[in-house]
Design goal:
This protein is mostly helical. The protein is built from 3 helices and 5 strands; from the N terminus they run H-H-E-E-E-H-E-E. It binds zinc ion (ZN). Zinc ion binds next to helix 3.
Length: 135
């Protein structure tokens, strides 16, 4: 039952309880009070499930994004390559990716030898004009 309809049902039960009070029908009143409590419990459970659902959706989004970016990383001869939506290819550090799953983009160092800013590994044999981050 949705939260809105639960709230509407609770209102109806409250009205019915008032009618029962007037009629002094004790059994009906007790049953209605029990129904109201059950519905209130259900509403609490629904709220908790809603919150959990939202948390799981957020986690799923994060994982989908990670998976999507992971699928764009491919092994090449001298390094790993990340391909962006617009088709650009970036050279990534092999050591950081294989050891720690870190997609670290290589930087052009002094003397034009690309290196990893994280682990300082040098890449002497890269085809620099192939990579957007090394041009
Ligand atoms: Zn590295």
């Amino acid at each position: 039952m949705e939260a809105v309809s639960i709230a509407a049902t609770i209102e109806l039960i409250k009205k019915a309880i008032n009618v029962a009070k007037n009629l002094e029908e004790v059994e009906i009143k007790d049953a209605l009070i029990a129904s109201r409590e059950a519905l209130n419990e259900q509403r609490e459970k629904n709220l908790l499930l809603s919150e959990k659902n939202q948390t799981l959706k957020t986690k799923l989004n994060i994982l989908e994004t990670k998976l999507k970016s992971r699928n764009r990383i491919k092994e090449s001869i001298d390094c790993y390559e990340k391909i962006t939506d617009d088709g650009k290819v970036f050279a990534l550090c092999t050591q950081c990716w294989e050891a720690n799953d870190l997609a670290v983009t290589l930087k052009k160092a002094r003397g034009a030898v690309p290196s990893c800013p994280k682990c300082s590994n040098y890449y002497y044999n890269l085809q620099k004009n192939k990579y957007a981050n090394l041009n």
